[in-house]
Amino acid sequence: MKLTSLLAMAGTVALIGLVGGPAVAQGNLVVYCSPQEEWCQLMVNEFQKATGISVAMTRKSSGETFAQIKAEAANPQGDIWWGGTGDPHLQAAEEDLTVAYDSPMMGELQDWAVSQHKLAGGKTVGIYLGALGYGYNSDILAERGLEAPKCWADLAKPEFEGEVQIANPNSSGTAYTFLATLIQIMGEDEAFAFLKEMDKNVNQYTKSGAAPSQAAARGETLIGITFQHDLLTPVVTSNAPLVTVSPCEGTGFEIGSMSIIKGGPNPENAKKWYDWALTAEAQMLGAQAQAFQLPSNKAAPLPEGAPDISSIKLIDYDFEKFGSADERTRLLSKWDKEIGAN
């Protein structure tokens, strides 16, 4: 899937009546949320105002949420999974942990969001898009007199020993996207050889995909590998000395997704959240929470200061292959054996 022709923003469209004002609908909803806590909570607050539905929300990384949904399959506790990288959403669809739903909002969405829906047989949908990359703390780089990294390959250089941070791909969709990206750029054998070399420079494999950007912003690590929009948040909120890098070899991207959990206790309210979350009004809330992803609704503007996706060298990321249960399970097992166990 090539994105350069799919990212033109459309004009304003009419929103469904659900977001027109406080509604009288009552009931409950359990949301599993994978983006940052501030965005999750803002979404919950605004949905409750719009519908009168009482929401219980749990925030975990993509990999953790997938594991929880799978563990609860015999007795589902959640209703809807909002956000997080698309690969585990696709695996959840393949393993019949989620259900198909055709929202009346589908016609308002970018082609890449609709493609995600089709790929999953209607069991997930794209809600935002973001490019992978890394950031470095320019103050620390200058203090140490180091040359700025420009490529993925630079992260294995000996001068960056102990200076790189990335999440664990078992818990983090961000880190799994990184793993899949390297394989698509380098080939599997070369990618794992590179990861073994880079492992010498990694000071910590975090649980959350956004944590490395926060650590780099605080000066706890020189380099943090994460999505580029996550690197912008500490720059905007605290003027952190972070410089974002779009690696010279090219980079992968996420289609942040949303899925209705099979057998959840409140299926009708899950559909109401699904429809509401696809509106331009709901997607514009991301900017208020300093979230800089590209929204999937054509009428939702790109947040001010967000990365220009059209200017980034994106690979033709194979969501079908790397979102499959067998491939994702195999690669995570291989990473555990060859990288995580060291």
Protein topology:
Elements: E1 28-33, H1 37-51, E2 54-59, H2 62-71, E3 80-82, H3 86-94, E4 98-99, H4 111-119, E5 125-137, H5 138-144, E6 164-167, H6 173-186, H7 188-199, E7 202-206, H8 211-218, E8 223-227, H9 228-238, E9 242-245, E10 253-261, H10 267-277, H11 280-283, H12 285-288, E11 294-295, H13 319-322, H14 325-340
Parallel strand pairs: 1-2, 1-3, 6-7, 6-8
Antiparallel strand pairs: 3-10, 4-10, 5-8, 5-9, 5-10, 5-11
Helix pairs in contact: 6-7
Summarize the structure in words.
Helix 6 crosses helix 7. Strands 1, 2, 3, 4, 5, 6, 7, 8, 9, 10 and 11 form an 11-stranded mixed sheet that branches. The longest helix is centred in the last third of the chain and has 16 residues, at 325-340. Helices cover 39% and strands 17% of the residues. It starts with 27 loop residues before the first strand and ends with a helix. It folds into 2 domains: 27-129 and 254-307, Periplasmic binding protein-like II (D-Maltodextrin-Binding Protein, domain 2); 131-252 and 329-340, Periplasmic binding protein-like II (D-Maltodextrin-Binding Protein, domain 2). Mean pLDDT is 92; it is low at 1-25. It contains 14 helices and 11 strands. The protein is α/β, with parallel strands linked by helices.
